[in-house]
Amino acid sequence: MTHTRPEPLIIEPSAGAPAQLFVVLHGESAAPDQVLGLVGAIRQAFPQALIVQPHGRFGAGAARRWIAQAEPDAEAYVGLVADAGTVLAAEIRSLQQARSLSGEQTALAGFSEGAAVVLEAVCAHPGLAGRALLFSTRFATLPQAAPAQTTLHLLHGAADGVAPVDQARQVHGHLAELGGDATLDMASHVGHELHEALVRQAITRLQNYLPLRSWESVMGAPAARVDEYSADDDSGKPSAEDGTLH
């Protein structure tokens, strides 16, 4: 049976033309309402943004996914995510053209499977987005090259039993070796969820982190940094004053 893909949910800017484009992807076996907390935080922090929440291309109802096969093996998963990344990139380019927005004005965000597709899209399509927020994902494969025009923010629960945080550490370290611009934030006592502590830190990164491509032109390459904090204690969370420039 073929299920029609619903139209994306779109939130227009509070007034006038959009200054930024955010595209937010839900996880596997889910729907856009899974990421409403993140969308609300983005809308509050960036009132002039156009926020688009597409539905996964496959599945039905509230159990949609981004890849063509449910529960594939590891080898098949790599190719399926690559295919999904190509489709996502084409959809984003179309949005950018229609709304006169550049890649630098674009931020992509994804949770779980959605984040794996976002990473694939920005790595395979240079300049697609200036920022990518990657929440709690099982990455399909290590990138062969770091996206020079995209800052990657990895956000993960330290107690994630679905996508263990060690893989996020591995990807972050690999990106650093490639000379990529990436941050890793881990919230203790947080499992496989879009926890408010991770959402808060994502907004902090967007508002206060100077991309490496801008920083290097002035000061040279700084050292990479990993932040870990308790989700139960706001005082343990990095703040703008902690120097989030990597």
UniProtKB/TrEMBL annotation:
Domain Phospholipase/carboxylesterase/thioesterase: 11-207
Coiled-coil annotated residue ranges, if any: none
Record's signal peptide: none
Gene3D superfamilies the record matches: alpha/beta hydrolase
Gene Ontology MF terms: hydrolase activity
Pfam families, alphabetized: Abhydrolase_2
Composition bias type Basic and acidic residues, residue spans: 234-246
Organism superkingdom: Bacteria
InterPro entries the UniProt entry points to: AB_hydrolase_fold (IPR029058), PLipase/COase/thioEstase (IPR003140)
Disordered: region residues: 227-246
Listed name of the protein: Esterase
Species the sequence originates in: Castellaniella ginsengisoli
Underlying gene: ypfH
